[in-house]
Design brief:
Layout: H1 2-5, E1 6-8, E2 27-32, E3 38-42, E4 45-49, E5 54-57, E6 67-70, E7 76-79, E8 83-87, E9 94-98, E10 105-107, E11 119-124, E12 127-134, E13 137-143, E14 157-159, E15 164-169, E16 172-177, E17 182-186, E18 192-197, E19 200-205, E20 208-213, E21 216-222, E22 234-237, E23 243-246, E24 251-255, E25 258-263, E26 271-273, E27 285-287
Parallel strand pairs: 1-25
Antiparallel strand pairs: 2-3, 3-4, 4-5, 6-7, 7-8, 8-9, 10-11, 11-12, 12-13, 14-15, 15-16, 16-17, 18-19, 19-20, 20-21, 22-23, 23-24, 24-25, 26-27
Amino acid sequence: MAEETLLKSEYSYRKYTVHDGLPEGLCTRLYQDSKGFIWVGTTNGFARYDSYTFHPYHTESDNLIWGFFEDSKGNVSGISLNQLYQVSFGSDTVHSHEMVTSPKEQYAGFNSISMPVGYGIFQIGNAKVVYAIADSGLVKIWEHEKLNKVQESLKPYWDKSGKRFFIPTYNGAYVINENGVVTDSFTVKTMNCFIPYKGGFLAVADDGLYEYDNRELKQILKYPFFKGNLKDYSILEDAAGNYIIRAENTIYRYADNQLETIASNLPQTHDMCFDREGIGRNKWRCHY
């Protein structure tokens, strides 16, 4: 039944490489700043894209960029495991400074993708903690034993208006309020990438899409997103109210209870974002 609901169509897209100005071919993160520039993290520095060219910023060799942070002045920093590489707007100089108080405290890049802008998850040993990344440094926000069960590539979600966290694990998921009380738990494996949906929330799992509303969970689409390799998904809502889903090698659109393939047979994807700067309702960028 899942295969019957899958619409198959292929949209045009362009691939950018080091020949276009990227500092490295393996890219990790995307971020659009307040001025509209797209920042691309790689395994060796990062680049700023202005819709025409990539301007590369190199860091130390093999220093992988896991995320981005924009301060109150509009300066953008690439985040590695324990450092910020800051670029002052209009400057080609990268300023590096330690972000953490202990060398064992590291930024959990995969787990931080669904955090609100300006927040990230850091790990010390087996413990994971949500921090605010402020201009003056890190500020501890929230910790819980269930957060420590979040494996790599899983993405906790902070519902700030509801004052609760959605915590995914490979064996199930938890809904925990900001006071640390577990209000719901589910046994759906690798239920990941929560996003607001029709007054509730939508989540991607290995075997399809799930809706969480009024403390009830139901499967609304059966489809094998997990093909046996990597349990790494993302989901975004576009300007038309459709949901774009990133799996390992395929990009889908979910709309009107149907699943459509946008692009397939891609190299391993890591992140995606919508470009809000005059690109139109039905155009978007996904980076892999």
